[in-house]
Amino acid sequence: MVGKLQIVDILLAMCKQPSSQTVLDFESALSYIFGQVSEDHSLAHDGSIMRHSRTKGVSMRGFMSRLTAYALVFAIHAAIVHAGDSKTPSAPKAGFRAEVLGQLDQIEQKIEDLAEAVPAEKYSWRPGEGVRSISEVYVHIAGSNYFFMTFLGFKSPVKMEPNMEKSVTDKGEITKMLKPSFDHVRNAILKLKDKDLERTTEMFGNTVTYRNAIITALAHLHEHLGQSIAYARMNGVVPPWTAAEQAAATKKNSK
């Protein structure tokens, strides 16, 4: 049997991660709320209760209070289960969105691999005065991923401060920012339908289609991927995918 505080813990767990175990815990919580009641009622001719004796469990008043609590918890549980069942739409097999998602996967992998390959002490390097440093480029990429999706009607789930490119300089913190930002772009495109691509939005003072806005976001990523490759090369870092190809070629030639 669970206690009152355990019920709160169970509900919090269900909110965070609905699962078969939390459903079983929920049933235990209901056992506590509902109680075991056995009433022996005698009714008057008009149907009203003349007397009742409690033989086990809680009183009728307690029973009704717990029944109300039961209804409340059941409603919460139903909402949680419904939320847990909602899934991100499956990826399209063909068409514009499928092609964009394919490119997005490749760009993300290269940017994240490159960000990991560059030594932390090189993150402050910049090619010249007034030009973004390595760390600033990666923070800019993450922030822009969230920003571009606002043109498609998707609000940013995180708050990107205006001076974040200057204030966030730690490699570990920066690399952790990248993946969630790419996930946001991916989920936004997945939630769109093909017919949405012809909708229009205001972007940098121009009226463009959603398709155009997505192309602009993708072009922006390609631009900064190229910039990041150049930055890495200037600091003696070979892009990981190139290093892997070179290692494979060397191994093949040595046989």
Question: Describe it for me?
Answer:
With 255 residues, this protein is mainly α. It has two domains: 4-85, no CATH class; 96-241, Up-down Bundle (Four Helix Bundle (Hemerythrin (Met), subunit A)). The chain is 62% helix and 9% strand. The strands form two sheets. Strands 1-2 form a two-stranded antiparallel sheet. The protein has a two-stranded antiparallel ribbon with strand order 3-4. Strand 1 (38-43) and strand 2 (49-56) form a beta hairpin. Helix 4 packs antiparallel against helix 7, helix 4 (96-117) runs parallel beside helix 8 (210-234) and helix 5 packs antiparallel against helix 8. The protein is globular, with a radius of gyration of 29 Å. The N and C termini lie far apart (68 Å). Residues 19-24, 36-56 and 70-86 have low confidence and may be disordered.
